[in-house]
Design goal:
mainly beta, DUF4249, DUF4249 domain-containing protein
């Protein structure tokens, strides 16, 4: 039984709204929660964790004692191992388009779960989707090809230090799923299909460093990516949940059923498409 505090507006006699405690029943069964966000030709991994009821305190914790198998078109191709709160590949197998992948998960304390995903064939996209329009000693101007925007791809870039490392360590994609630490592209202020400018030096300021430090960049890595329809639906779900008004006496009627494809459990396994291009200064 969950408890929610709601403000009920009393419209008679000009009464002031009074807080009332209302019991709301949210049926919940403890099951495994699974999140996987995969891209073709890149290492794959999964979060496998517990589940938390609507009225429960706590965090979503990884389950280290699960058996996690990956099948490709019905044939087992990998047994994932637990490493730093996620399950990672133990083979050199990579995901390929137009193949059906099935995850089978067993844990001694939870019912078994499974899920399937079939990454589609990616359209034949040009590798050079960003062109240099001009450059000088201090800045470089670039233009993104119009197809990036017209095909609903998102665009960003990673600034690369002189030693080859990236500045950003988190990516917007990881806000959809717990424990995923992908890189976060810097999004230019200009239109995606227009020109944008990047400084060849970058100023680090406190508290990142003890005193202002000018860092020389060796280049940027551009990325164009788009999330699968299921991933987009999950992103919208998260946005709607986070934007629910607190203390409102006009609570909206919103479908908050979480999109997912985990049979016997909670969560989502899905994919995203991406194209990358490195530009050296």
């Amino acid at each position: 039984m969950s408890r929610a505090i709601m403000l009920l507006a009393l419209v008679f006699c000009g009464c002031v709204p009074l807080p009332q405690e209302v019991d709301i029943d949210f049926p919940f069964e403890k099951r495994i929660t699974v999140y996987g966000f995969w891209s073709l030709d890149r290492p794959y991994e999964l979060f496998v964790g517990n589940s938390i009821g609507f009225n429960e305190a706590g965090t979503l914790d990884a389950l280290p004692d699960a058996t996690v198998l990956l099948a490709e078109n019905g044939e087992i191709v990998d047994s994932l191992r637990f490493d730093q709160n996620r399950y990672v590949s133990t083979s050199d197998h990579i995901l390929r388009a137009d193949n059906t992948y099935e995850i089978r998960i067993n844990h001694p304390d939870y019912p078994a779960v499974r899920a399937e995903v079939t990454p589609p064939l990616r359209p034949n996209l040009p590798d050079e989707f960003v062109c240099v329009s001009s450059a000088n000693d201090e800045t470089i101007e670039l233009v993104v090809k119009p197809w990036v925007d017209s095909l609903s791809f998102n665009f960003g870039y990673y600034r690369i230090r002189a030693d080859g490392s990236f500045f950003e360590v988190d990516e917007p994609l990881d806000t959809l799923f717990p424990t995923f630490n992908l890189r976060r592209p810097f999004l230019p202020e200009e239109e995606v299909s227009g020109n944008f400018r990047v400084n060849k030096d970058f100023l680090l300021t406190p508290p990142t460093v003890s005193e202002p430090t000018l860092i020389e960049l060796m280049g940027i890595e551009c990325v164009a990516y788009r999330i699968s329809p299921q991933g987009s639906a999950y992103s919208e779900y998260v946005r709607r949940v986070n934007n629910l008004p607190l203390g409102s006496n006009e609570l909206p009627i919103v479908d908050l059923s979480q999109p997912g494809n985990i049979e016997g459990g909670y969560g989502l396994i899905t994919y995203y498409e991406e194209v990358r291009l490195r530009i050296h200064f």
